[in-house]
Amino acid sequence: MSNRSSSTSDFILLGLSSNPQMQKPLFAIFFIMYLVTVVGNVLIILAIHSDSRLHTPMYFFLSILSFVDICFTTVIVPKMLVNFLSETKTISYTGCLIQMYFFMALGNTDSYLLASMAIDRLVAICNPLHYDVVMRPQRCLTMLLGSCTISHLHALFRVLLMSRLSFCASHVIRHFFCDTQPVLKLSCSDTSSSQIVVMTETLAVIVTPFLCILFSYLRIIVTVLRIPSAAGKWKAFSTCGSHLTVVALFYGSVIYVYFRPLSMYSVVKDRVATVMYTVVTPMLNPFIYSLRNKDMKRGLRKFMCKVHS
User: Fold this and answer.
1) How far apart are CA 236 and CA 225, in angstroms?
2) What is the distance, to the nearest Å, from the Cα of residue 302 to the centroid of all Cα atoms in its chain?
3) Averaged pLDDT, 144-172
4) pLDDT at 238
């Protein structure tokens, strides 16, 4: 941190729009989205906890994913809501690094949890007779701990790299939170080596779970195509529909934002894509998993009956 300019005690977050008339409408929209995200994901966690038939590896990972999604949006949205109604829209240098750390740690944990859920579907469809042995509770816990450890080490490494940069020109971040690309744009240090390291390390950390998901679904497709009946094929694929939808939403926007050189960074387009995986996807996850899943519907009904009884 000693490398930074003495005048970088604060950054200014421009947010989604600099139009004063848009601040209150945007506050209302994102406040409602945040409430829906928190309530929806809490309901998923409570429904899984209250129904013993949902105490399986798939729903264990889903409950953890819901908890991580709540934390993930909480790292970003409350500060964004405050800035919508604030004149200054500032964030301290230390606060910026802390936000960046938890954003990356929780975002990467999300991707590893999605990979764990893909492995669960792979074992359930391709090796159902050994499912209870392969996906035993101890192994699920090990997968969870591994996901969190890798994600937090990745975030720590990235933040340590950022802390070595100097910021001696503009301190205006053209984004609604402290993301790596817009902050790198402000640095007056030579960021070429940092970009190479970041891209290489990001590829290793983010692409690994993505390739795991890809491999799992290729195996699932090959196995399902061997099922003779159309009803059997549909039943097997239907168990993966919700997970595939979430994977497409999450990775589609992440790949668009992060797997490009800094020179191709576009403020407006990247803001929209970032909103997709930081706010929209966590909000939609409870609907995707409950509306297309009979077990979750039953679990939610059971939980609501307990509440009203």
Assistant:
1) 10
2) 28
3) 87
4) 77
